Automatic annotation (TrEMBL), chains A, B:
PANTHER family tied to this protein: MANNOSYL-D-GLYCERATE TRANSPORT/METABOLISM SYSTEM REPRESSOR MNGR-RELATED, MANNOSYL-D-GLYCERATE TRANSPORT_METABOLISM SYSTEM REPRESSOR MNGR-RELATED
Matches recorded under Gene3D superfamilies: Winged helix-like DNA-binding domain superfamily/Winged helix DNA-binding domain
Protein species of origin: Actinomadura rugatobispora
Domain HTH gntR-type stretches: 9-77
Domain of life: Bacteria
Pfam families: GntR
Keywords, in A-Z order: DNA-binding, Transcription, Transcription regulation
InterPro entries according to UniProt: Bact_HTH_transcr_reg (IPR050679), Tscrpt_reg_HTH_GntR (IPR000524), WH-like_DNA-bd_sf (IPR036388), WH_DNA-bd_sf (IPR036390)
Name of protein: GntR family transcriptional regulator
DNA sequence: ATTGATTTGTTCGTATGTATT
DNA sequence: TAATACATACGAACAAATCAA
């Protein structure tokens, strides 16, 4: 997954949704660490500020929580919407 | 040798070139250790991140190699360009 | 075997300046 | 003007490995 600088959606949101997709796909379980800022810098070829904004955005969405000097982790499932049918 | 924060060249590159000059001057021989990160912090009055960037830059240039938990050392001379005259 | 100092590795937090749209 | 994004730099904390006493 890469990032498109010429898209309507800001790069930091693109990154946030890419990570979110991995979470939803079960590739990163609750309480597990998401990629560090510098990892995102390398993986997506963006500046660190942008990676930070992506994390801040994910935090804002309630998807993750950050522990200073430790990392950012996937949030506990809040209260699952019951699977349909 | 000190560092100029108002120069065009980034501080980390300035430090890298200062160390390189010492290597070229024979003050630090191949296989010998260059100053540690915390030494550079003290000597140049910069943050450790900046010292680390200087080392990373030198590594990138092929001037040095780093052994984790041991230090950073001057690279072996590749293939000397024959001394002129 | 233990302790303490040293050294690199890694992480998030913060600030400034610049450029582009 | 405001939002986005990049580069640089300092700060703080902790981990882990090495080495010497």
């Amino acid at each position: 997954m890469t990032v498109d600088h010429d898209a309507d959606v800001p790069v930091y949101q693109q990154i946030a949704h890419i990570i979110k997709a991995r979470i939803d796909a079960g590739q990163i379980a609750p309480r597990r660490r998401i990629p560090s800022e510098s990892t995102m810098v390398q993986e997506f070829g963006v500046a660190r500020v942008t990676a930070r904004r992506a994390v801040a955005y994910m935090r804002q969405q309630g998807w993750v929580y950050t522990v200073p000097q430790r990392g950012t982790f996937v949030s506990e499932p809040e209260d699952e919407e019951p699977a349909g049918s």
